Amino acid sequence: MTTSHETTRPFGTVAGDGQITDSPAVRPSRSIWLRAALSTAAALAATLIAWVLAVPVGGLELVASTGGVQPTPVGPAQIVIAVLLGSVCAAVVSALVARFAKHARGVWLGISIAVGVLSLMGPPLSASGTSMLVLMLLHVIVGGTLIIGLLPPRIRPERA
Question: I need a labelling partner for 14 at 20 to 30 A (CA). Which of 7, 97, 115, 132 fits?
């Protein structure tokens, strides 16, 4: 909390004597968790709709294997678990970036796009043919939704 002789700035606090402290003045608020919840819900809905269109409606047998194990079907339970785990990790990273990074939006975009590209390496390693393409689409849907939904807000300089 600042006293009446301090002014909060985006990258520190200016005390009454003009000295700047190094503590970031912009802290992630509860809104990050609200944005995380909404982004997770949107990612889940969009991914499950895509799965329904591909599997029950389209007749695709969506399967994936890990570590040379026999391919297993990818159903709604696996999708929900994967989206929830990814969303929690993404929300924590977004909150940390918003709290500590000087250029939070750029840092978030760099990290999240890099992780998204790396996640696209999974489907070609675990599936083939149409299953691989659908799994890649599901990754893009979740990644795109979380990248946009968890983008840290712009910092507006406070007026003195």
Answer: 97
CB atoms near residue 47 (< 10 Å): 22
Q: Is 16 inside a domain boundary?
A: no
Total count of domains within the chain: 1
Ordered per-residue pLDDT tens for the chain, 160 residues: 444 444 444 445 555 566 655 544 445 456 889 999 999 999 999 999 999 999 999 999 999 987 777 889 999 999 999 999 999 999 999 999 999 999 999 999 999 999 999 999 999 999 999 999 999 999 999 999 999 999 998 765 555 5
Q: Per the domain annotation, does 61 fall within a domain?
A: yes
Q: Which residue range(s) make up the domain with 87?
A: 27-149
